[in-house]
Automatic annotation (TrEMBL):
Any one Pfam family match given in the protein's UniProt record, by short name: LUD_dom
The name this protein goes by in its record: LUD domain-containing protein
Domain LUD residues, every copy: 110-207
Signal peptide from the UniProt entry: none
Amino acid sequence: MTSVSAREAVLGRVREALRGTERTPPSAVPREYRTTRPAADLVALFCETVADYKATVDRVAAEAAVSKIAEVARAAGARRLLIPDGAPQAWSQVLGEDFELVDPEAGTAALEQVDAVITTAAVGIASTGTIVLDHGPGQGRRAATLVPDLHICVVAEPQVADDVPAAISRLDPTRPTTFISGPSATSDIELNRVEGVHGPRTLHVLVTPAV
């Protein structure tokens, strides 16, 4: 006579109870309640929520973006700029006349001498004021967007998504992503805010109809 352990007996009863049942895939989570927001203008909401995180936001015409970048850089006292590969060629052509452009592939030591990085973005999230980089063309590698003290990010209006699920649906899950909500900041136990600890101290966002 073969003895059956308590574990085998329990599992046998579970299998018997499940015999004949069919597995059904999990149903999709209903999100109909998130399809409409009070704000009719997502871009305006995005600008508002980005500013709530102590970032500076300007809406500019596409053709005025590069001149605004130069204005922001000068106001910050920046001289050495990093423009990632894949950014609009006009940025390098115009900014190279008045600023020193650093090799986008510069090593960490050279990055510490960069005053500002200018990038595009993958997605902007209106409800949270978050910018998402997937480090594709025009966005640079992660280190290049974390070391310089000033980050100027140009976001196209069609890139603005309603909320986080909508933004995630636009991203490639195989790519690295960086979520940015305002300039880098932290605080100690006494809630003393310190900026620029883990990334740029200043974030300036330019929103344009197209990049």
